[in-house]
Amino acid sequence: MEILDGKILSNQIKNKVKDDVIRLYSEEQKPLLACIIVEGNKASETYVASKQKACEFCGIESKVVRLPENISQIELENQIDFLNKDETVSAILLQLPLPKHLNSTSAINKIIPEKDVDCLTNLNLGCLFSGYSSFAPCTATGIIKLLENNNISIEGKNVVVIGRSLLVGKSVACLLEQKNATVTLCHRRTKNLKDYTLNADILIVAIGSPKFITKDFVKTGAVIVDVGINRIDGKICGDVDFDNVKEYCSYISPVPGGVGPLTVACLMENTLYLANKKEIKTNKNLIKTKERNYEFNCGSCKKLRNR
Ligand code: NAD
Questions:
Q1: Secondary structure of the chain as H, E, C letters
Q2: Catalytic annotation on 95?
Q3: Which of 20, 116, 118, 239 is catalytic?
């Protein structure tokens, strides 16, 4: 069994972003990521702190907009609108989940697509699902990079994704299908889950249920990507029971240290991508325009041929 290490790859991605920021931007005019956090979720505080740290490393400016837990939908959306109009802001991230009284779909869709760094607005998702997007949600992009960086071929493979959120399950299923995998998307109402998972060459788990996947769900030699982040007695664990399945799979991503760091690294890439797009549009610096056309690896921008 080999470990799918997300830390080394995420450092490589962040170093590349850092180099590109130095090469393409002056000190006075750096890309800026605005993170909106609605208070009341401890885990979200940790995630936003790690995103700020990554921004600092990459030379990307960051700003955290902290809102009280009891904020109304209108007030939240007004704050988003304010950031939409702020010329200095390149990218906006609304940290999820939101408190139950808020409608996250409505709030996300208040972000203008040009600043929607996690590619979650209806317009950006529409482009992604039709195969004409140059970027994708950060976690889904990170999962693809983790597989490809370890030379795990996707084409023609039976891939089972458990969990159908737009943030993870649905978007990674879309990217995998565009890379010619045969994808089955399972969820809470799937009957006889094992019938699907036992046939999976690659199993991707994003359900938020600690150590749910045991060896009984795993085909011998399968590749397992564990997206889950759960806390038990202050310790972080994934949706896969690592010790129980490790002898039965060929590759497995650990939690922590697997998909998590890649989500943050891909957030840095997406921020730079949106900042570059804005620069090209506003034509501020024509000489650098070509250089700013940042390359992406998620593959969904390629014309879909031989289907
Ligand atoms: P979500 O709650 O929006 O969706 C969970 C999905 O899992 C749903 O589609 C549900 O139908 C399915 N599900 C739940 N229990 C199931 C079961 N027993 N059998 C089959 N399907 C089941 O969650 P999400 O935002 O997609 O996040 C999922 C997990 O991934 C969470 O632990 C979250 O913390 C983690 N996450 C990690 C990263 C990262 O960077 N590593 C990023 C985002 C989310």
A1: CEECCHHHHHHHHHHHHHHHHHHHCCCCCCCEEEEEEECCCHHHHHHHHHHHHHHHHHCCEEEEEEECCCCCHHHHHHHHHHHHHCCCCCEEEECCCCCCCCCHHHHHCCCCHHHECCCCCHHHHHHHHHCCCCCCCHHHHHHHHHHHHCCCCCCCCEEEEECCCCCCHHHHHHHHHHCCCEEEEECCCCCCHHHHHCCCCEEEECCCCCCCECHHHCCCCEEEEECCCEEECCEEECCECHHHHCCCEEEECCCCCCHHHHHHHHHHHHHHHHHHHHHHHHCCCHHHCCCCCCCCCCCCCCCCCCC
A2: yes
A3: 118
